[in-house]
Write a structure and sequence with these properties.
This protein is mainly α and 183 residues long. The protein contains ten helices and no strands.
């Protein structure tokens, strides 16, 4: 598969600029590490460049001042459509927002499902690593705490099991099983 390195480089540049100064929840790690990890997971699984670029920029509409129009202009309609499909509605209360997100991803394209799942996998790896360093204190960085966070992970997994036949689903299931063991 021939890669569109220009698109991926533009996505990285946009994400680096948009997330400048942001840090990962509960860590001393720059936030940009997360979207790059999502892009790498998608690349490792052979997804198209537009999916990888959207994975790299998946949080820019939700967590920065980059607008959907700016994303569309800089990276194209397909990338912007993928990102819009995985952007949560922060105007809703936490549980409503999570339920709406699950349903949005359920009806989304395969590419959007892949981005969401790669995001969940990267988040799980980060949480497990942070737990090794900080112990149970890591759960205090999550608005909903341990129980509701695990509820959301299980609900996402159930949705992926029903709607997305991909080996990443098994990887995610194994990570959730590990997360369940964390106090």
């Amino acid at each position: 598969m021939k890669r569109d390195h220009n698109l991926i480089e533009r996505a990285v540049a946009l994400a680096v600029r948009a997330h400048e100064g942001q840090m990962r929840k509960g860590t001393l790690m720059p936030y940009i590490v997360h979207p790059i990890a999502v892009g790498l997971i998608l690349a490792r699984h052979g997804f198209r460049d537009t999916v990888i670029a959207a994975g790299i920029t998946h949080d820019v509409i939700e967590d920065t001042n980059v607008s959907e129009d700016e994303l569309r202009r800089d990276l194209g309609n397909e990338v912007a459509d993928f990102v819009a499909s995985v952007t949560q509605d922060d105007t809703l209360p936490w549980e409503e927002k999570k339920k709406a997100y699950i349903e949005e991803v359920r009806k989304a394209s395969e590419g959007a499902k892949a981005i969401s799942l790669a995001d969940k996998i990267a988040n799980a790896h980060s949480l497990i690593a942070a737990h090794k360093a900080q112990g149970a204190a890591i759960w205090t960085y999550f608005n909903a705490g341990r129980e509701k966070t695990l509820w959301f992970e299980h609900a996402m997994l159930a949705m992926f099991c029903e709607s997305f036949d991909h080996p990443m689903v098994e990887e995610y299931a194994a990570l959730i099983a590990t997360m369940e063991t964390l106090e």
